[in-house]
Please model this.
Amino acid sequence: MNVSLSENGPVLSRIVAGCMNWGEWGANLSIDQTRKLIEDCLSINVTTFDHADIYGHYTTEALFGNSIKGNSSLRQKMQLVTKCGIKLVTPNRPDNTIKSYNISKEYIISSVEQSLKNLQTDYIDLLLIHRPSPLMNPEEIVEAFMKLKNEGKALYFGVSNFTRTQFEMLNTYIPLVTNQIEISPIHLDPFIDGSIDLCIEKRVKPMGYSTLAGGKFFVNNPEDRVKSINKITDRLAQKYEVTADQILTSWLLKHPSGILPIIGSTKIDRIKSAVNSLEIKITDEEWFMIWEASTGAEVA
Model:
């Protein structure tokens, strides 16, 4: 299932493959393993791959790019999302002396040029500002975006981790097609701080990361809050004859904002499980059961 992020935005797969853990920060896949995982994702219609320049200390984009190098047919079947703006202190960037943000015109353009080389592609389908900076100048950001768009190097633009007011501010300068935010049954802030409300108002779909709370639901000794949620999800999983992770994903999919979950696993069975969650339709009351288990109190 594919969806448009906004009225005139890109069409992405409803379930997105998150690539943060594909390289040094996680599974450390080989080039062949990466290509196989890409092909497996495409075979189940997971066609959108989410990157950031910093992943793997600035190495994961190149791992992905080398796996599709010279295979134009693969590139034509997918949408590539990447993010820029965070500067990490790492031997791969010896000039970075402190972790900071840079979303100046020059930095955005240079970051995209590097991502294009790393990903072995001529264009980025969707470029996101990774984090809002206290020093961000919206006019510079727009100048960078327009230059990249006019040159065909980035087709659409959005943000990640922006508050409601930060999104509104930048959106007055240039239409944004998404806000990529952390969201899960134990990270409910976007539901109550206006972030998702604004997406609905602006008719853009949010992208959600850490949708399974970084695996906190599946550890041996979960915290009490997670235990409460697990009791409900286990019960619902039994009712619908599915797995607990599918219930958790269906909980996000039910929201009318049209959240696109980013699945960070490198296991194709986990990604396939998320795709199958699209068929699960929990009731409103069941949705609130999970909400109540998370907050520890019934709604007012």
Observations:
- The chain has a mean pLDDT of 97.
- The chain is about 40% helix and 15% strand.
- Residues 236 and 286 are 8 Å apart (CA to CA).
- The first strand starts at residue 2 and ends at 4.
